[in-house]
Structure formats: structure tokens, C-alpha cells
Amino acid sequence: MKISQKNFLTAWENRKLVYGAMKKLHIYKDYSDYEDLLQDGVCLYAQMLEEHPDMSREEVDKLSFRKIIWNTTDRLRKIQRNDEHRCNVLECSNLAEAVHWDDLIVLKDEVNKMSKIEQIIFFEHLLFENTFSSLVIKYGINRKQLQRLKHKLLIKLQCTLKE
Q1: E strands within 8-148?
Q2: CA-to-CA distance for 22 and 69, rounded, in angstroms?
Q3: Residue 112: helix, strand or coil by DSSP?
């Protein structure tokens, strides 16, 4: 949506509303994404001014305040989810450093017993993180079959490593 210069300047001059929304969400100037969130809030405010020219300024301010809070909360949740995922990946990489050599020997023996398709799933999908779509194109194997075999393979490996 296009925002007129007049509405953007109005939003910029009244950015105290955005500051108030940020304060309500306990987002302070020392937060690393503070400027980005502030700029998004000003743009949202200008967009609301553009969308509701028939409403009084006070009503638009109330709606804008709520919309800025909702949008910022959603963005913070997305950032938090990404950070948690990144932490989980880092924890997994730390766990990989403390590998048990016995498990590697068992896995090596187990790989030799696997069928050709199971080896493809194990190496290319699980280790090299290729998608099923690329495996379907590369080897011409049905996606459902790959998913079923992956599930069975993971259960088999889990049982083998528990022993």
C-alpha cells in the first residue's frame, strides 16, 4: 500500500504513540532491533492514517496503538522462535563433539546392512540435509515411500543405538 508523504510526516511527528507502544511491550533503546521495530511502528501508524481518513484522529490513534502492539508482538515471537531454533542447532552441534566411538562403530556396521534406498535416505537426507524433493527428482523414488522408509530407518537406528 502506498503511504502519502503527508500521512508519513504526521506519523513521524507523532511518533510518541509508537514510543508508547514500545514502552508498553518493555522494549527499550538498548534492544538490538529497537530502531527496526520503531521504524515499522511509524510505517504502520502512517498506513493506518492512510486507511482510515474518515475516522477521527483519536480513533485512528487508538487503532494504530493496538495494531503496533500486535504487529510488534508477532515480530518478537518470530525473532524468539528463530533464536530458540538457532540455540537448538548449536546445542546439537555441541553434542556431536562428544560422540561415542562405540556408537560410530555400530552405525558403520548398520550402514553396511542397509538397503540402497535406506543408504540414500541416511546419507543424503539425514546427514547432508538434502530435501525429499531433490531426492525424488534425483532418484525417481516416491515421496511417500521415502517418508515411510525414513521413519522405519530412524526407529531401527534408535533401537540399535539403545542396545
Answers
A1: none
A2: 7
A3: helix
- The predicted structure's pLDDT at residue 140: 87
What percent of the chain clears pLDDT 70, i.e. is strictly above it? 89
Tens of pLDDT, residue by residue over 105-116, are: 788 888 888 888
CB–CB of 136/142 below 8 Å?
yes
The pTM for the full model equals 0.52
Contacts of 121 (CB under 8 A, 6+ apart): 135, 146, 149, 150, 153
Question: Where are the chain's structural domains?
Answer: 5-95, 100-162
Burial 93-129 (b: 16+ CB within 10 A, else e): eeeeeeeeeeeeeeeeebeeebeebbebbbebbeeee
Burial of 136 from C-beta contacts in 10 A (0-12 / 13-18 / 19+)? middle
Q: Which residues contact 3 (CB under 8 A, 6 or more apart)?
A: 43, 46, 47, 50
